[in-house]
Amino acid sequence: MAPHILGPEPVQADSSFLGTRPCPTLSYPASFVDEVSASIDQGLSESEKLIANAMKTRIEAIDLETCSPGSEDSFFVADLGIVYSQFMRWSNCLPRVTPFYAMKCNGDPKVLQLLAALGTGFDCASRNEIQTILDLGVSQDRIIYAHPCKVASYIRYASSVGVEKMVFDNAEELYKCAKYHPTAKLFLRIVTDDSQSLCQFSVKYGAALENTQSLLQLAKDLGLNVAGVSFHVGSGAGDPNAFLDAVRNAKRVFDQGAAIGMHLNTLDVGGGFSDDSFESSAAVLGDALDKYFPEESGVNLMAEPGRFFVSEAFTIASHVIARRIIENQNKAMLYLNDGVYGNMNCILFDHQEPVPKVLTYQGKFMYGERYQKQKSSQDVSVWGPTCDGIDCISKSCQLPVLLDVGDWMYFTSFGAYTVAASTTFNGFNSDCETLYVCSKKEVEQYIKL
Question: Which positions carry N6-(pyridoxal phosphate)lysine (predicted)?
Fold first, then answer.
């Protein structure tokens, strides 16, 4: 579906836009139900108001009795203002480090347009990702082909379109580069300690320090240009000190290069930056860079953040399509029209634990944390729509109310590694609609809303 742009219209109270149905099995205090009918914008940030309004408007347009198949599919709301705010946050905390956005995290076109306009570079892992960025008018020097083990034809493609920055971590990759892209500016990726990260990459990529000297010598013998060193402390890094160790090891490789007459001039510190720990990670990284690669060294600094820019910017809404009450156990099972084979694949691939929140209940709109605070005693499990038993969103949670078929749930912080890896398993739709809002007026300077 085509994306929509929604402006900052004020959220209006409405307690009946979905109609009414018989009450669920459990009953709840009248005071709580009355509270739900109150204005939904109390205590919400500007971003939350815009997101709430977008969701309310979208759901109001759906008539479950007459809508066409798929009209009630899950949908995203993306606040581009958050992406902008994260960029400014990065610039303030790591002013020396140029971000190259990791496309694999979320290739949303509006996000890419905004980041391109803000001047970021892009970390690409395939021919298609490179082509997408070039089609935005981004210059080749703002692209790094960061996959350490590349398809030969993709290397030829990178050469043909003028993408010079490429990563390697083994001898065979050097031979391919010498054959298919001898003018490339190569980055030697080194192994790191990513044991505290959500997703560990060093089990698969990165040259061990005992091999870096020989790889540099081979590159020199082949007449290749090694421009720098790269590392990645793992996606969702949990230990800021991992950056310190990695920067120290990178300096060692720089020294190895200098010893054989190589002038390495760029350090790529990779990704692994999370929203909740960014300042602490940036402080450790910044201090390490100042110590081992001070400004007077002339070394260029870059990074490959992904989730940091987009995770908090996206919220997803999903529809309850079925419900099962487990008699005599005080349990219920809710089935949504999205799951781990769709936009919630982050549960499997990114080790995320999304928190289900009630969006609508008996025709009442319940967006916002104040409605989620009260918890029922009933244990609820939440499931995706496919036939696979692994398609479980939450094995156990307590909701403020027991939802029924036709109600909606929502999940926040859903921009990282979600839609990027969705599938059409069982024939379910993976083309999820995205509604765009913007909580920062400054964004209008960069892209058309």
Answer: 104
Q: Which residue has the tokens 């190259």?
A: 100
pLDDT tens digits, 119-129: 999 999 999 99
What CATH number is associated with residue 382? 2.40.37.10
> Which residues are annotated as catalytic?
387
Q: For tokens 């219209």, what's the residue?
A: 9
Of 269, 287, 310, the residue that ends a domain is 310
What is the spatial distance between Cα 136 and Cα 30, in angstroms, rounded to a whole number?
54
CB 272 within 8 A of CB 233: yes
Q: Which domain holds residue 415?
A: 13-60+68-79+311-442
Residue type, 74: S
- Please classify residue 203 by burial: count the beta carbons closer than 10 Å to its beta carbon, then call 0-12 exposed, 13-18 middle and 19+ buried: exposed
DSSP alpha helix (H) spans, 5-79: 30-36, 46-60
Q: Rounded to an integer, what distance in angstroms lies between the CA atom of residue 241 and that of residue 115?
A: 28
Residues 285, 401 within the same domain = no
The number of beta carbons lying within 10 Å of the beta carbon of residue 35 is 15
Predicted confidence (pLDDT) per residue in 78-97, tens digit: 999 999 999 999 999 999 99
Query: Is 357 exposed, middle or buried, given 0-12, 13-18 or 19+ CB atoms closer than 10 A?
Result: buried
Cα–Cα distance for residue pair 207/438, rounded to 1 Å: 42
The overall average pLDDT reported for the chain is 87
